[in-house]
Amino acid sequence: MLEKMIVKEELIKNMILTFCVIVLLFILFDVIIYNQVKHSLYENIDNELIQCANNYCLNIINPFDKQNPRMIYIIRDINENIINEKSIGRMYNDYLISLPFDKSLVNSLYTLNIANEYKYRGVTMQLENFEGIIAGYVQILANVDGETQTLNTLLGLLGLVTVILVIILVLVSYGLSRRTLRPIVESLKKQTEFVQNASHELRTPIAIIQAKQQLLLQEPNAKIIDKSEDISLVIKESKRLTKLIRELLILAASDSNNLELKKENINVDDLIKEITKSYIDFAKIEKKEINLDLNSNIYYSLDKDKISQLLIILLDNAIKYTKENESIEIKTYSKDSKIFIEVADTGIGISEEAKKHIFERFYREDKARSRENGGTGLGLSIAYTIVKLHGGYIKVLNNTPKGTRFIIKI
Ligand code: ADP
């Protein structure tokens, strides 16, 4: 639960950051495009205005004989009054009558918003007589409503595209973040489960040992023989605790990539013979049979201690989960320079559902029975880690006619 919340918080933070970066990038992109288009649209008009102003001042054209139909020429006297109303025509009475005039804008280009409706680019020139005295002003205006309309449409389009793309990108990045975070959530969950399971498993033997010892202390004069059952239980649980700690340390080392292989050339068949020696007698006592069918016969570069540990886990399990008069077979063979090791038994077998989980930490099909047998539920996950470290695989199949068959390929 906690890990889900932490990841959710991270996801939200990531989303906000992604959202801000995407929005900023798009705004920047829009501003650049808008200004670029605006500049190129107004550049043409400004060039035309400058040309007309120059032509007018050089007396190349007559103001009353306008050559560029787009331009409006407004002539003002020294008192800034318009003196060519007639040549301006209807536009004068419609809205140009209120045209503002700013002397400080002489010789510069500017934008005018007339009657809050019409947009013009303009240039103002000063008229001088032959003696160089100011005689009046000429204002040349070009209507840019078309350009403004184009720019407004562009702005609307950029806004719409930005909103759509931001939504799409945010959704895509949300989906991708969730996908990337999923394995992290899983591993966090597994980590928490592992710690919970480990502390639970450690607590049980400790609680039994403490309780039994307290009981023994309450009867200091009792004879050991009378309390042998309690004492042997304390010893059994202590052993269990030691085994559990050893296995937990192996898994912790593998999690932190500290589980290194010390490879050497070994003959697996010889190793199996050596390991099974002590098990064969033990199995006999339990009226079980161990058969060997060893054909690998080549030297392989493997970690001897870890392979021994792997074989012991499988052999231990095979003995644990078989009954009297049942048998265990260990088989080896080589194929394509790989070694195959099979450990099969005619025991209780593993259900299809359990097969999916047996390599998980602390998984036990029957917790009570496993505990009774001294099992910790960590054996097969250690076996899996050892095989993976060697670059191989381990799988579990049904044995025929009954029981379990583990196949390892390295
Ligand atoms: P445990 O210490 O409980 O044996 P393992 O990780 O070695 O833990 O095994 C996990 C579970 O897989 C066991 O609890 C048992 O249910 C099942 N299992 C493992 N080996 C065998 C086998 N040879 N036959 C039947 N069940 C097995």
Molecular structure report:
- With 410 residues, the protein is of the alpha+beta class.
- The protein folds into three domains: 2-150, Beta-Lactamase; 183-255, Helix Hairpins, CATH 1.10.287.130; 263-409, Heat Shock Protein 90 (2-Layer Sandwich), CATH 3.30.565.10.
- The chain contains ten helices and eleven strands.
- A hairpin with a 2-residue loop joins strand 8 (327-335) and strand 9.
- It starts with a helix and ends with a strand.
- Bound molecules: adenosine-5'-diphosphate.
- Adenosine-5'-diphosphate is lined by residues 313, 317-318, 321, 345, 347-350, 358, 363-366, 370, 375-381, 404.
- Residues 313, 317-318, 321, 345, 347-350, 358, 363-366, 370, 375-381, 404 line the site of adenosine-5'-diphosphate.
Describe the structure concisely for a colleague.
By secondary structure, this protein is of the alpha+beta class. Helices cover about 55% and strands about 20% of the residues. It has three domains: about 1-150, Beta-Lactamase (2-Layer Sandwich); about 185-255, Helix Hairpins; about 265-410, Histidine kinase-like ATPase, C-terminal domain (Heat Shock Protein 90), CATH 3.30.565.10.
Search tags:
five-stranded mixed sheet, Helix Hairpins, 11 strands, 3 domains, Heat Shock Protein 90, Beta-Lactamase, four-stranded antiparallel sheet, alpha+beta, binds adenosine-5'-diphosphate, 410 residues
